[in-house]
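Q: Structure for this?
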Amino acid sequence: MEKRREEHMDVRNIFLPECFGKKRTAVQKEGFFMKEKLAQLKEKALSEIMASEGLDKLNDIRVAFLGKKGELTDMLKSLKDVAPSDRPAVGQMVNEARAAIEARLEERRQAFEKKLREEKMAAETIDVTLPAKKPMLGHRHPNTIALEEVERIFVGMGYEVVEGPEVEYDYYNFEALNIPKNHPARDEQDTFYVTDNIVLRTQTSSVQAHVMEQGKLPIRIIAPGRVFRSDEVDATHSPSFHQIEGLVIDKHITFADLKGTLAEFAKELFGEETKVKFRPHHFPFTEPSAEVDVSCFKCGGKGCRFCKGSGWIEILGCGMVHPNVLKMSGIDPEQYTGFAFGVGLERIALLKYEIDDMRLLYENDVRFLRQF
Amino acid sequence: MNTPLSWIKAYVPGLDCTAQEYTDAMTLSGTKVEGYTCFDADLEKIVVGKVLKVERHPDADKLVICQVQVGEAGETVQIVTGAPNVFEGAVVPVVLDGGRVAGGHNGEKTPGGIRIKKGKLRGVESFGMMCSIEELGSSREMYPDAPEEGLYIFNNNPAYTDLKIGSDAVEALGLHDVNFEYEVTSNRVDCFGVLGIAREAAATFRKEFVPPVVTETGNGEKASDYVSVEIEDTKLCSRYVGRVVKNIKIGPSPMWMQRRLAANGIRPINNIVDITNYVMEEYAQPMHAYDLDRLAGKKIIVRRAKDGEEFVTLDGQTRPVDSSMLMICDGEKAVGIAGIMGGENSKITDDVKTMLFEAACFDGTNIRLSGKKLGMRTDAAAKFEKGLDPNNAMAAMNRACQLIEELGAGEVVGGAVDVYPKPRVQKRVKFSYERTNAVLGTNLDKQTMIGYFKKIDLGYDEKTDEVIVPTWRQDVNAQCDLDEEVARFYGYDNIPATLPNGEATTGKLSFKLRIEAAARQMAEQFGFFEAQNYSFESPKVFDKLLIPQDDALRNTVVISNPLGEDYSVMRTLPLNGLLSSLATNYNRRNKNVRLYELANVYLPKSLPLANLPDERMQFVLGFYGEGDFFDLKGVVEEFLEKVGLKDILTYDPQAKKTFLHPGRQANICYQGAVIGYLGEIHPEVADRYGIGEKVYAAVLDMPQIVEKAGFDVKYTGIAKFPPVTRDISMVMKKEILAGQVEEIIRKNGGKYLEHYELFDIYEGAQIAEGCKSMAYSVSFRAQDKTLEDAEVNAAMEKILKGLKTLGIELRS
């Protein structure tokens, strides 16, 4: 490459106009022969170029015609013998011949290169159906994926995600939630006790009073986390599972707001077509209270094995925060109202991913985890 | 709670709806129906038939050929049967050709039932089937008069005196009924009785509620002449009503009562026991019957048991009782554990003559705790636990006595002994309909709301704007409870759905959660799968991990009522779960498994636990298969850098973790603090977990990392001047750590030191025994100029000088 460029430069230098002016004593008739010779030279060069095979040959031709000692260069040297009046015309002819040869050279070079590349590529053909090389990527636990989904929805609605202790004072888990000592709900929840007043929290509702006590209003939080209940392990029970608590406290919060919020949540989580049904229920820390069913996303509400034929799937409990609960945490129930809800995370994960046995969630078999 | 629709309809005669409509409407008004069973779901073309003739089957010893009348006009069909109890004249349920029964005679139901078609049995034509109670989908529980084996026989049962041949046998048996299963919430004590549910049903369907009319009962005598009652502990027993029945005639209770009890899940026994149970189901008021002749001193004293006392309950079991438990006693001894179970010594037997009926009201909490202590949860206790309405006791008692009279089970003695020191009065709850609308987001008028109240017997005082709450509604105490009453009868469905429109708030994750998210992302990028393990584990884990007996890690938060030893202590280090999960994968032949977990550990601040333990989130990574210590170290470093821990990390091999390989472990140190550790799991530990490969694990203490972390990044410019790089090749004692060499390079490298990198490490030929060679490339760069050789040389001098202090020599 380097060399070829030099020769090219030589040729061009020779054609600088200064070269012409120095020799003006040429013979007229030389001009005619020159033209003739030029034409022949040009034809010869072009046909040789056409006949050439390979880039090396092409370079040889370039050197042979356009190089320092090339034929065209030689002719140029003999321009001094041409009558001065003919020189411009002959000079132009030389230029034209050179341009034609160069153009043809370039054309051929490109053709050769194209051909070479094509041959090379043809040889490089691969079997695209051979297996992919996958980077070894890890996978997230389905509980976490479901949680992140829920967090995304509520963060989008202006909720802050907060946490609370898993080993918790009895007060936060029960008393501050309007569940006094000896309330039957304490039995129903089958609490793990550490001491008389320290428990493994049975519900993320325990975070409610912690948040309210901070005294910052309005409140819009969700509190995900681990909870514990004294249930033996089986396909639908685990002594340790996760809940997501939601709490909104502000002026003029209504049950209608609770309905709207959870309807929005259900649509985001289970699809635009999802319907929600609120059924009256009882929780000590909300009044009125409700359980919420969503239309079965498997059958769309017609009834199937998944929803046990009812067309509905129970997903959460909720209600208006009981005035006693607000009072205990220093919030004036005359001024503020609020709603709270609690969702079982495993329940969502099992439903959404159609996992039929809860135990799979805690085995951590990578063949299971890889599917999420 | 289970109750057949027929029983509800007895009090709501206008009720007319399908089982599904009933289910939906009741559930939406707050009485959740869990499910229902139609007794006649699979029964078709079943009539009352009469066996006219029984002949032997010519080809089968166990079969007979019957001519059965199946129509009033005398139509007969031929039926071949193998039933042992068939006889000429027997009146039996008969399923006709093309009809359906619910199941086989073994009591197993067939989904969808069994179609009965005419056919030949051993060559003899048969045009139907005579049925056992099991084939009709029922049981001897509900029909105690049914034989253990064979056909159900209508004959001689007074309940069927007017039975017409050819009529609907399902109707005759009362099987055109639906049994509903309710989930009653603990606050609705009244709905643990049929009457309570019926009241709700009437309100829900806007029909009239017709409770039983209890007439005056009793002879001219006085109960107080038979027995006296004294309550010692009025806190635990707020009311005790006693009535006396004499001339008792024990016998079976009528079919309708037996069926209702059976449908509710209670086995019929005899008229007295059945009436007791019937009233308990109807009024949600448990009752008990004592043999009055066996009560010493004709006296009842309600008092606490004495510590160390033992008591034989009517099931024959000896139970230890103590002073926390309330007993029913006679003049000498205990005769029952209050509200839980009566005593062997006073129970009524078939030859009882006079009995004392008890309807009392006991403290719910005390009953619950006593029941728990005794490990007994009788039907009665389950109701008392909820805290009953003492005013209901007398109503239930009078109802029971009425039934005694109606069923001719005995002669009721007039009057009652009623000890009721502090009668419960109706509550008055201030009501504001505006507030209800404000809480619900509705716009209902006051009269509508008051109308809802009236349907469930909540009164209203216009003058004071107070709702008058009957004593059975102990759950209605405040305005918010009235809000719920309005909501459920207006219909949760009908309340609009809106979104809160108050002050805007910022949705966000806490900083801690963001760091955890970064940890997940980084772990997954390096091929680690997220695991989740239980927070509690066995204390044996510490032995498995070779933790010394006196190690602080053995100070755990202990669960006082665990599911078992395996779940009894809260983890203090997160490795057991991860190693167990790796072992699970190893056993299942999964190759190259990498797991991570974000797991809390629970470190008690003091023991015994006086305040909450320190809950510390640990980021734990572990793997077996491809990779080694340094791969894991790389993951740790990438993560720490990602979350902004950009200062120098150092590694101290003296981590002294007993569960790690002694020569392959290190504490991870940052700014002078140990923020975690990593290493190869001790081969003995790996063995104990049954993992047959090298296992590596790292544990990072997230609270420290969160404290030091940050996502702030400042652009520092791309260097404009070229670096100067020098290589140093050294020979040193094997024990010298790369970390020590690097520390000297860092300390002595001067301000232009930019980077250093180990590019060769070698032991063996050409290197003296006990030594190794290491080669580093060290680069220097200035931000503002091209460095002069002299400057770099000076820095290199210093580095080499420092290295010499460790006895490190340059390799020639």
